[in-house]
Amino acid sequence: MVNFYRGIGIAVLSLVIFGSLIGCPKKQAETATQNIPAPNQETPAPPPSVVEPPPAAEPPPVTEKEITRAPVPVKADEELKDIFFDYDKSTIRPDAKEALDADVRWLKANAQAKVKIEGHCDERGTNEYNLALGERRAHSIKQFLVTQGISPSRISTISYGEDRPFCTDSNESCFKLNRRAHFVMTR
Known about the structure:
alpha+beta, four-stranded mixed sheet, two-stranded antiparallel ribbon, 5 helices, 6 strands
């Protein structure tokens, strides 16, 4: 009986060894056959290849420096002009009267328009002081508009102090751009 099991074991072992030697049949590699034309035969033209155009070049991103170099005065909503102030002042400068008169004419011609006046400051001073100064600037513009016949119900004010600068350089040419009242159209 032992010989019987030994014979079966040898047979199984032989099958395993034989199977591993033979292994799985391999796929034959696909080879492209070349059609070599016989002498004096024309070679057929290859099919036209599809050439995709290169992707369009994207414009370079705008840097913060380029944004801060925008022309002055800054126009809000392309209609109303910003009003600029002297350092630490909320009184309307004489050179701002022309811009304000143009703003009044536009507001009278567009009686349905409502605006928010944002008061802004440069970075000098404390946050609290600049918020109060920005509020005084916005209110002085509102008072001017009201005295010119614009309904106070069409005008709201807010102060951002130094929190939303137009220009971020720390020099006087930049500071003067940030001392402003800015108009925003509202509904």
